[in-house]
Amino acid sequence: MWLTHHRNSATCLAKLVKLLGNATVTDKAVGASLVGFSLLLFTYYSIWVIVLPFVDADHVLHQYFLPREYTVILPGVAALVVLLCIGAFVGAVMLKNRKPKKVD
């Protein structure tokens, strides 16, 4: 919403830097750990899906990865969990904000 109040990108960037400057050390540590975990997960999954099919089946690298059928199953389960969490959140917000019916 604050982006709509500024006309040029330099002002928007300055405002963003100011907002990020207000983050506490804990916020920055949590953010850095989330970025690190995401990078690690992306690298692991990319090697698993892109590189591993070209490596011989008896190579030692295969012992660090799950069987290939899980390359589809795990992201599907993760997507299902994310959708269920979003649905639960939306449902909880709708229940919390519903207005009582008027009695005539």
TrEMBL record:
- Entry membrane topology: Multi-pass membrane protein
Keyword Nucleotidyltransferase among UniProt keywords: no
Q: Which InterPro entries does the record cross-reference, listed alphabetically?
A: DPM2
| Biological process, per Gene Ontology | dolichol phosphate mannose biosynthetic process; GPI anchor biosynthetic process; muscle structure development
Q: One Pfam family of this protein, by short name?
A: DPM2
Q: Got a GO cellular component term for this one?
A: dolichol-phosphate-mannose synthase complex
Biochemical pathway: Protein modification; protein glycosylation
Q: What broad class describes the main subcellular location of this protein?
A: endoplasmic reticulum
Transmembrane region positions?
29-52, 72-95
GO MF terms listed in the record are: enzyme regulator activity
Key words, A-Z: Endoplasmic reticulum, Membrane, Transmembrane, Transmembrane helix
Annotated localization: Endoplasmic reticulum membrane
Renumbered to this chain, the signal peptide range is none
Q: What job does this protein perform?
A: Regulates the biosynthesis of dolichol phosphate-mannose. Regulatory subunit of the dolichol-phosphate mannose (DPM) synthase complex; essential for the ER localization and stable expression of DPM1. Part of the glycosylphosphatidylinositol-N-acetylglucosaminyltransferase (GPI-GnT) complex that catalyzes the transfer of N-acetylglucosamine from UDP-N-acetylglucosamine to phosphatidylinositol and participates in the first step of GPI biosynthesis. May act by regulating the GPI-GNT complex. Regulatory subunit of the dolichol-phosphate mannose (DPM) synthase complex; essential for the ER localization.
Query: Which family does the UniProt entry place this protein in?
Result: Belongs to the DPM2 family.
* Quaternary state and interactors: Component of the dolichol-phosphate mannose (DPM) synthase complex composed of DPM1, DPM2 and DPM3; in the complex interacts directly with DPM3. Component of the glycosylphosphatidylinositol-N-acetylglucosaminyltransferase (GPI-GnT) complex composed at least by PIGA, PIGC, PIGH, PIGP, PIGQ, PIGY and DPM2. Interacts with PIGA, PIGC and PIGQ.
What is the official name of this protein in its record?
Answer: Dolichol phosphate-mannose biosynthesis regulatory protein
Origin species, per record, is Gadus morhua (Atlantic cod)
Lineage of source species: Eukaryota, Metazoa, Chordata, Craniata, Vertebrata
